[in-house]
Amino acid sequence: MSTTRPPDGRRADAPARPLCVKICGLTRAADVAAAIEAGADLLGFNFYASSPRYVAIAEAATLIRMLPRRVLAVGIFVDPAADDVRRAIDAGVHLLQFHGDETAAFCGSFAVAAMKALRVRRLGDLAAAARVYPEDWWLLADTADERLHGGSGRALAAEPIDAGLARRLFLAGGLTPESVAAAVRTLRPLGVDVCSGVEDRPGRKNHALLRAFVSHAKAA
User: Interior CA angle at 157 toward 154 and 161, to 5°?
Assistant: First the structure.
């Protein structure tokens, strides 16, 4: 079944709305609790086995049960088998985030909404990269890296992008509590995504940095 609407019925082109903050690479219950308390809107669980932030679907299911209804669970995949995606959905994932070479048809073939990560070298490349995806899909912009599927920790230089594209875009790549407010003010994206910028080491979140990131992002 193809679903292109964002989860819980919200459209990416809705009127002015609060910024969404997404925390990725969660592996521990203490970090999930801290992210929820900080005010995060989406929490990402990485099902890519080669990632240092990998979490098994069964382990993620326990963490996802901690989430209140206002917080969406995001499953992060790189060229997965369809059965693994369906297992993650059964475990409680609300949104699928694809970082590999998946086709738009594959991404949209599941019972929950999809978000495609676009690996670009500059924000000016986003419009062309986004054309193959339905206009009401959420997209994520991350810094291109020949060796990594996301998580490079390198920021994309801020530059103007189309407002319609910004309204369905999560900005990722090298964001920190110190840099996120300026990025939000410049681009006015749908949301921001952070992983390494709030960590002590891969998969281990710094709770003070988590609180600062969410606070600075939402105050921008």
Answer: 130
For residue 2, the model assigns a pLDDT of: 38
Active site residue 195: no
**Which pLDDT does position 10 carry in this prediction?**
39
Instruction: Enumerate residues 6+ apart whose C-beta is below 8 A from 151.
Output: 25, 51, 53, 195, 196
Question: Model-level pTM?
Answer: 0.88
Q: Is residue 200 annotated as part of the catalytic site, yes or no?
A: no
Of residues 20, 24, 107, 195, which has the active-site annotation?
24
Q: Which homologous superfamily is 19-219 in?
A: Aldolase class I (3.20.20.70)
Give CA separation, 14 vs 18, 21, 123, in Å: 11, 17, 23
* Sequential DSSP letters for 168-191: TEEE-SS--TTTHHHHHHHH--SE
